[in-house]
Amino acid sequence: MSSLNLDDFTDLIERPDGGVRRDAEARRERQIVPPGALGRLDDLGEWLAAAQSAVPVRPVERPRVVLFAGDHGIAELGVSSRAAGSAAGLVREVLEGGRPVAVLARRLGVPVRVVDMALDCDPGSLPEDVVRHRVRRGSGRIDVEDALTSEEAEAAFRAGMAVADEEADSGTDLVVLGDVSVGGTTAAGVLVAALCGTDASVVTGRGGLAIDDLAWMRKCAAIRDALRRARPVLGDQLQLLATVGGADLTAMTGFLLQAAVRKLPVVLDGVVTAACALVGQRVAFRAPDWWLAAHDSGEPAQAKALDRMALEPLLTHGVTVGEGTGGLLALPLVQAAAALAAELPERAEESEEPDASDGLAKAEEPETSGGLAKAEEPAKPE
User: Fold this and answer.
1) In the annotation, is 323 catalytic?
2) How far is CA 6 from the centre of its chain?
């Protein structure tokens, strides 16, 4: 019997402080630049102030990229432009600084953490701090079998929670969340289609490297078949992740929910993180208030998930590479919003207007000359 009760998150997760947000809005109205002139930067600054429960908002000084990694058995069907089981090579490139996320992270001074949940490789080939949370070698082929056992799903979910606690305890003040996977967008498409009640064709995208039409049809068929297996378990979100998610997606869902418990803001990167966030919303409806959508990757499943959560992407650059790249592109906007909200001076107070009652009092004073005043003077004794 599992001791993990996802219903507890409904009570544990609170919304960002609404009173602080109103204070941030009031402060913004007093600043020298008129409200609205900075566009969405105003909203970003106020969102961050509420998340921090601080006015003025504090600068984002200790962000971190957290990437959950895994291979998916569904990639064996040729649904990805990358070979099945090749995600470990991508992880090595990230660690060696050769992937886009690593280049941007160096430029922005942001540390990158990779968490192996189900890479299809010898764990000894990667650093210990990367592989210590792994629950299995590769996730199952979700069109014909479960991605995980129930025990593996719970272990992956708890691993994600533990990573969130580690980041919160270490002083991280904002997380850019991403994935390093092969076949992950297929699993994400199944989750989104199941939770939104749509057909496979509505959520099937081209993936990170733009698969051709034949691969797209194989991917659509794989999502369709996996969707049949997902629908009977829609009422149990952990079982849904075990059936058609995978260890990396399950861990990301646990991370997102525990980050919301710990009041740690998270920037969502692409379609995989959006799918996990959608599962998280089904678990705890207040949780999306702690998340920010970085960009629109062009994946239809991502658009569907973000629309369901009422999250509007900050950027639309068509970045499909994943791995937290789009999230890092949005980070400077969040930092700029914090700086503007905190450092723009307020308008000088206007000089006080004369009290209207002063004028009235003067008008009522008797005149010192004129017939009326003289007529009211008491007569002098003779």
Assistant:
1) yes
2) 20
Domain boundaries, the chain: 17-58+345-375, 62-332
What is the pLDDT at residue 365? 45
Dig out the tokens for 4 from the structure.
Answer: 């993990």
Out of 46, 154, 167, 323, the active site residue is 323
CB atoms within 10 A of CB 54: 15
CA atoms within a 13 Å half-sphere pointing along the CA-CB vector of 355: 5
For the record, the structure tokens of 148 come out as 């995980």
User: Average pLDDT by consecutive 10-residue portion of the chain (382 residues)?
Assistant: 85 96 94 92 96 95 98 95 94 96 96 98 95 97 97 98 98 97 96 96 82 92 97 96 98 98 97 98 98 94 97 91 93 96 85 46 43 42 42
Residue partners of 377: CB distance under 8 A and separation at least 6? none
CATH level 3 topology of 62-332? Rossmann fold (3.40.50)
Burial of 345 (0-12, 13-18, 19+ CB in 10 A): exposed
The dihedrals phi and psi of 219, each to the nearest 5 degrees, come to: -65, -45
Rounded to the nearest angstrom, the gap between the alpha carbon of residue 100 and the centroid of all alpha carbons in its chain is: 20
What's the chain's Rg over C-alpha atoms?
29
Query: CA–CA separation, 103 vs 105, rounded Å?
Result: 5
Task: Give 27's contacts (C-beta < 8 A, 6+ positions apart).
Answer: 55, 56, 341, 346
Q: Which two tokens stand for residue 337?
A: 């919003």
Nearest in space to 184 (alpha carbons), one of 287, 327, 55, 81:
81
Total length of the chain = 382
CA distance 256 to 267: 10
Give kind and range of the element (H or E) at residue 166.
Answer: helix 150-169
* Angle, vertex CA 234, rays to CA 228 and CA 237, nearest 5: 125
